[in-house]
Amino acid sequence: MATTRASIICYYDLISPYTYMGVKLFSRFRKQWPSVDVTFTPILLGGVMNAVKNRPLFEFPSKRNHMIADLDRISAVTGVPFKFPENFPVNTVLPMRVLTALQLHEAAEKYEQCIDKLFDEYFVHGRNISQTDVIHAALMPLFNSDANKVDSYLQLATQPEIKQIFKENTDKAVARGVFGAPTFIVKKAGEPDDKEYLFFGSDRFEMIAAFLGLPYPGLLSRDRNSAKL
């Protein structure tokens, strides 16, 4: 069966600074791609890395130093705010399960606002997003200070159903060939539904745009009116 619309699945984990940067840049121009369905799927990056026997950059001092300098340069060039957190890495299982619950029960716009907010908490403000109180405080403004609603999502994150969905997301990512984050699974309109193309990294948007025949405003684009993720 042929795919009627192009689609992009972004596999992400809040622990990844390059994913933070990629999501911020993606949010600037994705509104120019109305013919493309976009989905942000939460995964446990550590689970992916273990499954494929990959090693994170921060384990190697020279790579870690380069990563921080590189991200600072990207921030300076693009205007995307960034500060490498002093407490890195942290355990993101809880916030990622919260986001899994949010994706299941909230509209896409609200869910994506929560992704954006939690990314900011960590990579702009340096707060420890593994902590329940940090997650709670971050999400409260997005739910009109409804503490009960935020608490309900924190509770859902501990339930077997959400844990299983999160695990299945991670397992499916590995089955699709994902080995790090951000990873984008792209489908072209008119091609068989099972035909997928994998793009890895926060610097592949120009290639994705060219692949799908879409406009791409460039790395330096700073459209202040772009919809936030």
3D structure, described in words:
With 229 residues, the protein is α+β, with helices and mostly antiparallel strands. It has a single domain, classed as Glutaredoxin, CATH 3.40.30.10. Helices cover 48% and strands 10% of the residues. Strands 2-1-3-4 form a four-stranded mixed beta sheet. Strand 1, helix 1 and strand 2 form a beta-alpha-beta unit. The two termini are 31 Å apart. The relative contact order is 0.22.
Order of helices and strands: EHEHHHHHHHEEH
* Helix content range: 40-55%
Number of strands: 4
Radius of gyration of CA atoms, rounded to a whole number: 17 Å
Strand percentage: 5-15%
> Residue ranges: pLDDT <50 for 5 or more in a row?
224-229
Note the overall shape.
Answer: globular
Tell me the name of the CATH homologous superfamily: Glutaredoxin
Average pLDDT rating: 94
Q: What strand line-up does the widest sheet have?
A: 2-1-3-4
Count of helix runs: 9
Walk me through the topology.
Layout: E1 6-12, H1 17-29, E2 36-42, H2 45-52, H3 61-78, H4 93-105, H5 108-123, H6 132-139, H7 147-156, H8 160-175, E3 183-187, E4 197-200, H9 205-212
Parallel strand pairs: 1-2
Antiparallel strand pairs: 1-3, 3-4
Helix pairs in contact: 1-3, 1-5, 2-8, 4-5, 4-7, 4-8, 5-6, 6-7
